[in-house]
TrEMBL record:
Superkingdom assignment: Bacteria
Keyword Nucleotide-binding annotated: no
Alphabetical keyword list: Ligase
UniProt key word Ligase: yes
SUPFAM superfamilies found in the cross-reference section: DNA ligase/mRNA capping enzyme, catalytic domain
Domain named DNA ligase D 3'-phosphoesterase: residues: 39-137
High-level lineage: Bacteria, Bacillati, Actinomycetota, Actinomycetes, Streptosporangiales
Protein name: ATP-dependent DNA ligase
Region described as Disordered: 1-32
One GO MF term: ligase activity
Biased composition (Basic and acidic residues): 1-17
Source species: Sphaerisporangium album
Entries under PANTHER family matching the protein: DNA LIGASE D 3'-PHOSPHOESTERASE DOMAIN-CONTAINING PROTEIN, DNA LIGASE D, 3'-PHOSPHOESTERASE DOMAIN
InterPro entries: LigD_PE_domain
Length: 335
């Protein structure tokens, strides 16, 4: 076994410019061939990188639609260069202009067993926190492989998305928190809080009490599934009245492509949402401002918004709960 397995990986990267691990040439580490990782990659095109530890490297595929949950739908998996084992723990921003520029977040990580590993078939059983089950990968044309789930869909795959989810709630405060660097600030535009489930080309708004949203308050969101690349998702926001027309103002992302993002930090959920660039006539992603609340409060006051939100950058999403992770500060306290 030689270290040449990582030559392609090294040739695409400049160790001085990328935060990614770039081990020098030398003998490869020995592992147990039982680690897998799925990394969500906000590159020029959104994809998930699926990596299996094998003979001292992570054998890798890029999957534009993520791991399939349904055995009836196979997904394209593009075989990519072997990655170093250290990469299984990597999260971070690869800067503009570098290979694979964009944010990398760990989507799932766990152990796996190999049932078969040949050039024509890789059959594994995954034990992750988001995904478990038997999968097979097989080449179809050059670098293009397919990934197929051999187990039946997990029970949650047959439930409607967003079922039982309630919005996370802010605690009222009189002023901006003193440790404001730990928060992201957003405008409260008023209007009704709602969650939006997007699945199978359809959209479903869920009111703050878990019930339906009245038809006259429902924006026309027909084009949103396409804007989301037909990936299933759950969004959180407010239905604002813009000159008599309802518009869904989006400020959080709770689920994307078969995975709940509730335990991902507010900052990383927000960065993922921004990356999706959801901006249409009837839906908009609202801005957020890390670390400095005063100018946000001032602008909110000038524009007549009722309040601002302060959301702790490291906080998870706690459905239906009111906690000090999220604060609401009325604009009347603005200078
Ligand atoms: Mn990638």
């Amino acid at each position: 076994m030689s270290a040449d397995k990582l030559d392609v990986y090294r040739s695409k990267r400049d160790a001085a410019r990328t935060p990614e691990p770039v081990p020098g040439p030398g003998p490869l580490p020995r592992g147990r061939d039982d680690t897998f990782v799925v990394q969500e990659h906000h590159a020029r095109r959104l994809h998930w990188d699926f990596r299996l530890e094998r003979d001292g490297v992570l054998v890798s595929w890029a999957i534009p639609k993520g791991l399939p949950l349904d055995p009836k739908t196979n997904h394209l998996a593009v075989h990519t260069e072997d990655h170093p084992l250290e990469y299984a723990g990597f999260e971070g921003e690869i800067s503009k202009g570098e290979y694979g520029a964009g944010l990398v977040l760990i989507w799932d990580r766990g152990t796996y067993e190999t049932e078969k590993w040949t050039e024509r078939e890789v059959k594994v059983v995954l034990h992750g926190s988001r995904t478990s089950g038997r999968y097979v990968l097989f080449p179809t044309n050059g670098k293009n492989w397919m990934i197929h789930r051999m187990d039946p869909p997990p029970p949650e795959a047959s439930r409607p998305l967003g079922e039982g989810l309630l919005p996370m709630l802010p605690e009222p405060r009189k002023r901006i928190p003193r440790d404001q660097r730990a928060y992201g600030f957003e405008f409260d535009l008023g209007g009704d809080r709602a969650l939006l489930a997007v699945q199978n080309g359809e959209t479903r708004l869920i009111a703050a009490d878990g019930g339906p949203v009245p038809a006259e308050k429902t924006p026309d969101l027909g084009g949103l599934p396409k804007a989301l690349l037909d990936l299933p998702a759950v969004l959180d926001g407010q239905i604002a009245d813009v000159s008599g027309t309802p518009v869904f103002m989006i400020y959080d992302l709770l689920h994307l492509d078969g995975g709940a993002l509730l335990d991902r930090s507010y900052e990383n959920r927000r960065r993922t949402l921004d990356y999706l660039k959801l901006n249409g006539d009837r839906w908009q992603t609202t801005p957020w401002f890390p670390a400095d609340g005063k100018p946000v409060l001032k602008v909110a006051h000038q524009r007549g918004f009722p309040a601002i939100f302060a959301k702790r950058l490291t906080s998870p999403y706690l459905p239906g709960m009111r906690s000090p992770y999220w604060l609401t500060i009325p604009t009347r306290t603005a200078p």
